[in-house]
Amino acid sequence: MASLATRALPLARTHTPRGSGRLLSTTRAVRQEAAVNLGSVPPAKKPVGAFRGGIVGFLFGFSLASSLAAYHLLEEYKLASAALQASVEELQTSTQKVSAHVRRIEAVEKDLKALSESSATKEDISRVRAEVKKLYDGLHVEFLDLRAHVWGIQEDVHALSKKNSPTVRLV
């Protein structure tokens, strides 16, 4: 209470008119206290407490560490994204190559199917071989018959030429 009065004393003296004789501090205890403490009291500075300073330091350190971690995380994300993009592009080129190979294989299979439909089977070849063999055997028999027939004609001509040889006519 005394400190409140001492603080209020300089204010009361500056605001009260000079002609008035009565002051706010009329009691003896307040006058003695006012006489002892004639100077004004400087306002007390609030010291930064360890608790409040610790919290501020912790928050500053935490925000700094968080920002650095976010920066490194963003850099890692960019690197991973670039690697993933390169991998996707590589996968796309290999997929295009595989697609081209598949199209070529399908074309070859189509050609193979067309050839297999137009080609002869073993049964067809065996049947054609048997027919050719029959034709060959038939031609061989006809050839032998023709040869025998020509030989017979040749013998007849030879026999006639021996029979007619003593008489040679000249014309």
Structural features, described:
There is one protein chain. The chain is an all-alpha fold and 171 residues long. It is built from four helices and no strands. The model has no long low-confidence stretch (mean pLDDT 80).
Keywords for this entry:
rod-shaped; 78% helix; 4 helices; 171 residues; mainly alpha
Pairing-aware structural class of the strands and helices?
A: mainly alpha
Shape: rod-shaped
Distance between the termini: 190 Å
Main β-sheet description: none
Q: Which series of helices and strands comes N to C? A: HHHH
The count of strands amounts to 0
Tally of individual helices: 4
Oligomer: single chain
Assign a percent range to the helix content.
Answer: over 70%
What are the low-pLDDT stretches, counting only 5+ consecutive residues below 50? none
The fraction of residues in strands falls at under 5%
What is the rounded Rg?
A: 67 Å
Mean pLDDT: 80
How is the secondary structure organized here?
Elements lengths: L1 H14 L12 H9 L13 H69 L3 H42 L8
Quick overview of this protein structure:
The chain has 171 residues and is an all-alpha fold. It is 78% helix and 0% strand.
